[in-house]
Specification:
Blueprint (H helix, E strand, L loop, with lengths): L1 H5 L5 E5 L8 E7 L5 E4 L10 E3 L4 E7 L1 H8 L6 H16 L1
Antiparallel strand pairs: 1-2, 1-5, 2-3, 3-4
Protein name: 50S ribosomal protein L14
InterPro entries: Ribosomal_eL14_KOW (IPR041985), Translation_prot_SH3-like_sf (IPR008991)
GO cellular component, one term: ribonucleoprotein complex
Length: 96
């Protein structure tokens, strides 16, 4: 699992496997220096205050938003509505 965590990148789709938010999908915002992953869903956890999750409590999906990754890397303004729309699009791709 640790190898996968090193590969995590902003804009990647993840879902929670532990806690009150089990089953909720998020986009990765960044990886903190203490090894935790900062995630947002745009609804319950907005981009202005991302949730800090232990990587052991996340499932990492191969779906990835190039657009969001670029905007997060450039520190461009990203709205919660855009994050929710992007998660919806990634989930449509996931379901085939």
């Amino acid at each position: 699992m640790q190898g996968l965590v090193d590969e995590v990148r902003p804009g990647q789709l993840v879902s929670s496997t532990q806690g009150r938010d089990t089953g909720r999908y998020y986009l990765v915002v960044s990886k903190s220096e203490d090894g935790f992953i900062l995630v947002t869903d745009g609804e319950y956890r907005g981009i202005e205050k991302p949730k800090k999750k232990n990587p052991k409590h996340l499932k990492f999906w191969p779906q990835f938003s190039e657009k969001m990754a670029e905007r997060l890397a450039n520190k461009s303004k990203v709205t919660n509505a855009e994050i929710m729309a992007e998660i919806g699009e990634l989930l449509r791709l996931l379901q085939g």
